[in-house]
Design brief:
The complex is a heterodimer of chains A (667) and B (281).
Chain A (H helix, E strand, L loop, with lengths): L3 E6 L11 H9 L4 E7 L5 H13 L4 E6 L2 H14 L7 E5 L1 H5 L6 H19 L7 E4 L3 E5 L3 H12 L3 E6 L13 E2 L4 E2 H14 L3 E5 L1 E9 L2 E8 L14 H5 L5 E2 L8 E2 L2 E2 L11 E2 L5 H5 L4 H5 L12 E7 L1 E4 L3 E3 L16 E3 H8 L20 E8 L15 H15 L4 E6 L9 H10 L4 E4 L2 E7 L2 E8 L5 E7 L1 E6 L1 E3 L3 H8 L26 E3 L9 H19 L3 E4 L4 E3 L15 H5 L5 E7 L5 E8 L9 H5 L5 E3 L4 H12 L3
Parallel strand pairs in A: 1-2, 1-3, 3-4, 6-7, 6-18, 7-10, 18-29, 20-27, 21-22, 21-27, 22-23
Antiparallel strand pairs in A: 5-30, 8-9, 11-12, 12-17, 13-14, 15-16, 19-28, 24-25, 25-26, 31-34, 32-33
Helix pairs in contact in A: 1-5, 2-3, 5-18, 6-7, 6-15, 11-12, 12-13
Chain B lengths: L2 E3 L2 H5 L3 H13 L5 E2 L8 H7 L1 H17 L4 E4 L2 H16 L1 H11 L8 E4 H16 L7 E4 L9 H4 L9 H8 L3 E2 L13 H4 L1 H17 L4 E4 L2 H9 L1 H8 L7 E3 H8 L20
Parallel strand pairs in B: 1-2, 1-3, 3-4, 5-6, 5-7, 7-8
The structure holds flavin-adenine dinucleotide and iron/sulfur cluster (SF4) (4 copies).
């Protein structure tokens, strides 16, 4: 006979403020088969768990209902406690009195009644629970890192250094991400390339890392420990093994007027190109969209000049099939460009640039060799205006969030400008200065106090050109909303950081959630910041939200630890909440009629065929069988099966029926 | 298709020149419209500062009369009237209860079926298709197209043109042969209704609009709103005094420019009524 124990939690006051927990415990205690019913302030605390464990032993309980918060929060906690007391963990259920009841209702009789009803459904269900054994699945100890910015690089190196294999997928021709475009970095002003390039090289040379550049994820199937990934390696139109990276081809290509992505459009590149001199790998690719041969069918100059005969015009894209155990998404971010701002001329004024363009301008390897010169006429700007929060924190523009990095890089830009143009004047229009971080506020103060950058608190309503100058009209809210007009030579917009192109598409391939701005979503905003809601897939860097290098790197190391922890196990235990097709003694074998409709609807290709043979070895029946390693317990097949031959363990038809009947029946 | 016209107070008063040019080009292009009978004040800027219901009832009555007279569309040459009428149509559409209340106030049925056109939409729809063949004197001038505030605002409701950098007027002018200059003051405030109470403010704001147009070498400022026109034209003596200079640039309505381009006389399109002499013909 069933002996059920029920444990009502107050969750501090979260539940008890609106639900009369004493009454719930008392009412439930009177139900048939309930051997023990009690309440406690914090069930998840150590004394709370001990209470459950003791009760299991003392009252010889055959099932437990913990009536507390959402099972997403604490089901593992309580199942573990039950197991420690010798009860099969799958004989423990949770009734959600917090999210489903106390948080959403007022304090009154009906709320308590609803709480009682919720607990009753679980009491009825748990009576039908059966002891289940966890499923063991093997772990493929190879990680895939998608995106080769600083976050991806850090994650890959950290994982590789624990001795596990890593495959890095980067869609552009080189790794490095946005950090490779930066000049100097806040808050120390050390050169970005100098600290980044050694790590890029390390990635390329690490024995445990396989790097695929110019490659993208095509599809992802499977589950934690056992992902099956298809990668498209786009044709670079050359044989990387033969190419020596001499660069001759890039100097002879007749196409010379293609806007250079790395220079943010401020320079030109040929059709066969290496994105920047420190690129890893340092081999060119042919940009088919702009190559004369691919457009007109004639040219092949690069093929002629190549001393090693490495060019391969007919190279096809390659599809690779990879077995992967864990995935780190590190696809980074992008920024809005000046054309997003009608009030600043829709991008039609050449001397209004964005932050990344300023980085390239300030960079020693950039198009102006590190000199600040305005794009329109190459003059050194004497008066420069920086506009912070361009697009960010502006619900009217659809971007309500703070981009987090721009206050800091604007201070850096103003400082770099002052260091390069001593007699120049730098003005910053800002809303608030957000400089929380180690040595960050000191950095901003330095810009204001030592470099005499003129900080003006207020927005800029419009910028337009007049007589070759930019007229910046704003307001100074600290001087009683005085209108301010500055005649500037150049304007730099600290534009909003936004999700990278293709993020939504990738999220859908990976089955992970993303927010309304298409940034990847963490599993819990506070306690699971590097996990996604899909087991085995982790986040690193600015693909989650705009963040600076220290934050991106910390998170990357965090995700690497998660991967290493996963790979420290040879077998993963999975919850046995999978579907099963029933089996009976011959000649019945199963009520399954072998229609295999279930096979066509299963999203995880988990349904196989099983043949039964008679003594002569002749096949007498073919029925469905579910591969418990692949089944994700979605239940689609259960709903579909016409002969009711499939049941979901832990959520059988009978259990769900019992829950519903509990609500309909008097007690 | 029956087309009506709502003149509003300006077109029968301070902007008779605008009115004359609208009718003159309509006649030249063989277009007809019926003046909405017994029309009333649209409420302009005053009503919606004082009483929301009144500010909706006034335009609603105009629209209801138009419907009763079977007018499928209404041309509203004044940008302020246009804005009031469209905003009213929008508000009553999204709130049926409010609509019923307003119907009681005006003691008329209102369904919101008439399409409201501003002067540029009307030009785009009826005049532009036949413009090329009619032009006898291309309007070979450099013009600063000044839209003012209400032609494109509130943008979420009007959904007309680009709010920060509108283009429609520029396009019409370039079809006439004019060169529309890059002009950042397109939608800056002219001072609007402060014309009477704070002429000094109008002198300052309108002065900036004029100064920049002259500075950029424009031959004329082109407008599509009687309020803008009176501030930039009629208030010119005050502006010149305020700025201590002699701004000479004329301010013309888009309809006048069309009239001249198709060969109508300056008199016919009301150019003689301007305060600032128009040496364009
Ligand atoms: C103007 C500016 C100045 C800055 N200055 C500083 C500074 O001084 N100090 C500081 O700490 N931070 C600074 N930052 C922030 C810094 O750039 C970021 O913190 C850092 O680049 C984040 O690294 P990441 O790897 O997360 O993303 P990214 O650098 O964006 O790298 C993402 C990588 O993933 C690749 N990728 C994208 N999608 C895919 C896909 N679908 N498949 C495969 N690969 C993909 C991209 O090609 C890229 O290589 C600045 C940012 C800006 C915009
Ligand atoms: S010329 Fe040949 S070897 Fe040299 S970089 Fe180009 S493809 Fe490589
Ligand atoms: S084929 Fe011609 S255009 Fe194309 S990459 Fe080679 S040299 Fe350049
Ligand atoms: S970091 Fe600073 S500039 Fe950037 S959005 Fe936030 S407050 Fe604005
Ligand atoms: S429950 Fe059924 S449909 Fe869902 S994954 Fe398992 S076998 Fe496939």
């Amino acid at each position: 006979m069933a002996r059920i124990g029920v444990f009502i939690c107050h969750c501090g006051e979260n539940i008890s403020a609106t639900v009369d927990c004493g009454k719930v415990a008392e009412t439930i205690g009177k139900l048939k088969h309930v051997a023990y019913s009690t309440e406690y302030k914090y069930m998840c605390s150590d004394p709370g768990q001990t209470l459950i464990k003791d009760a299991i032993k003392e009252h010889k309980l055959t099932g437990v209902v913990v009536s507390a918060c959402s099972p997403r929060m604490h089901e593992p906690t309580f199942r573990k406690a039950c197991a420690e007391a010798g009860l099969n963990p799958f004989l423990c259920e949770m009734a959600n009195l917090r999210e489903h009841c106390s948080w959403v209702h007022e304090k009154n009789e009906l709320t308590t009644q609803k709480a009682i009803d919720i607990v009753r459904t679980q009491v009825e269900k748990v009576k039908l629970n059966s002891a289940l054994q966890p499923i063991k699945v093997p772990v493929t100890k190879t990680a895939m890192v998608i995106g080769g910015g600083i976050a991806g690089i850090q994650a890959a190196l950290d994982i590789a250094n624990t001795g596990h294999k890593v495959v890095m997928i980067e869609r552009s021709p080189s790794i490095g991400g946005h950090m490779s475009q930066l000049s100097e970095t806040f808050p120390t002003l050390d050169c970005s390339q100098c600290i980044l390039t050694p790590r890029m090289v390390e990635v390329a040379q690490h024995p445990n890392i396989t790097l695929y550049t110019y490659a993208e994820v095509e599809s992802v199937e499977g589950f934690i420990g056992n992902f099956k990934v298809k990668i498209r390696k786009k044709a670079k139109s050359l044989d990387e093994k033969i190419c020596t990276g001499c660069g001759l081809c890039t100097t002879k290509c007749p196409q010379k007027k293609i806007p250079n992505e790395f220079e943010q459009g401020m320079g030109m590149r040929p059709a066969i190109y290496v994105p920047f001199p420190q690129a890893v790998p340092n081999r060119p690719v042919i940009d088919k969209e702009h190559c004369t041969y691919y457009i007109k069918g004639k040219c092949k100059i690069c093929e002629v000049v190549c001393p090693t005969k490495a060019i391969r015009f007919d190279q096809p894209d390659e599809i690779l099939d990879l077995e992967i155990g864990a995935i780190v998404v590190a696809t980074g971010f992008d920024i809005k460009h000046a054309d997003f701002f009608p009030e600043y001329g829709y991008g039609k004024y050449k001397d209004i640039i964005d932050g990344l363009q300023f980085e390239r301008m300030a960079s020693a390897s950039g198009p102006t060799s590190g000199e600040i010169r305005r794009p329109s006429d190459g003059q050194v700007p004497k008066n420069i205006v920086f506009i912070a929060c361009a697009g960010s924190r502006d619900p009217a523009k659809g971007i309500a969030y703070c981009s987090k990095i721009c206050c800091m890089y604007t201070a850096k830009h103003a400082m770099l400008y002052k260091h390069k143009v001593h007699e120049g004047r730098a003005h910053v229009f800002y809303m608030d200065i957000r400089s929380g971080g180690k040595n960050y506020d000191e950095f901003v103060r330095r810009a204001i106090e030592e470099d005499h950058v003129n900080y003006i608190r207020g927005r800029v309503s419009t910028v337009f050109e007049r007589d070759g100058k930019l007229i910046v009209k704003g307001v100074d809210t600290l001087l009683g909303a005085q209108p301010v007009e500055i005649v500037a030579d150049m304007v730099v917009l600290a534009t909003a950081g936004v999700a990278n192109a293709g993020a939504e598409d990738l999220a859908q391939k990976l089955h992970v959630s993303y927010d309304q701005h298409k940034f990847f979503a963490e599993a819990h905003p506070k306690l699971k910041p590097v996990e996604t809601n899909t087991a085995g897939i982790f986040l690193a860097g600015a693909c989650q939200n705009p963040k600076d290098i220290p934050d991106a790197v910390s998170q990357a190391s965090g995700s690497a630890v998660k991967v290493a922890a996963l790979f420290s196990q040879d077998m993963l235990t999975r919850e046995p909440l999978v579907a099963v097709v029933n089996r009976y003694a011959p000649p019945m074998y199963s009520t399954c009629v072998g229609c295999f409709l279930c096979q066509s609807v299963c999203p995880y290709q988990a349904i196989e065929r099983e043949e039964f043979k008679n003594r002569e070895g002749k096949v007498v029946k073919t029925v469905a069988k579910i591969n418990e390693g692949l089944c994700q317990g979605c239940g689609t097949c259960v709903a579909l099966c016409r002969s009711k031959s499939i049941d979901l363990l832990g959520y059988s038809n009978n259990q769900v029926h019992a829950e519903v009947m509990a609500l309909l029946n008097e007690y | 298709m029956k087309t009506g016209i709502y003149p509003g107070c300006s077109l029968t008063g301070s902007a008779r020149d605008y009115n004359e040019s609208v009718f003159a080009i309509a006649e030249a292009f063989g277009l007809e419209f019926i003046q909405i009978p017994d029309w009333n004040c649209c409420g302009a800027t005053a009503a919606h500062n004082l009483n929301k219901e009144l500010s909706l009832a006034l335009p609603a009555r105009i629209l209801a009369i138009a419907e009763k007279n079977g007018l499928d569309e209404i041309i509203v040459p004044c940008a302020a009237c246009y804005s009031r009428l469209v905003v009213t149509q929008h508000e009553l559409k999204k709130d049926p209860e409010l609509k019923n209340r307003i119907c009681e106030v005006i003691e008329m049925d209102y369904r919101g079926t008439s399409v409201i056109l501003n002067v540029i939409e009307w030009i785009d729809k009826y005049i532009v298709p036949k413009l090329e063949e009619k032009i006898v004197k291309p309007f070979n001038y450099k013009v600063a197209c000044y839209y003012g505030c209400l032609l494109v605002r509130p943008n979420k409701i009007l959904n007309y043109d680009r709010v920060e950098d509108p283009q429609t007027l520029d396009v019409v002018m370039s079809k006439l042969g004019a060169t529309a200059i890059d002009y950042p003051y397109k939608t800056e405030c002219c001072g609007a209704g402060l014309s009477i109470s704070r002429t000094d403010i109008v002198s300052k704001l309108s002065g900036k609009i004029i100064e920049d147009a002259e500075h950029r070498g424009a031959d004329a400022i082109v407008v599509a709103c009687p309020m803008c026109h009176s501030n930039l034209d009629m208030r010119r003596p005050d502006i010149n005094k305020y700025w201590d200079t002699e701004f000479k640039i004329p301010v013309i309505f888009v309809t006048q420019a069309i009239g001249l381009a198709i060969g109508l006389s300056p008199q016919k399109v009301g150019l003689r009524r301007h305060f600032v002499e128009v040496k364009i013909s």
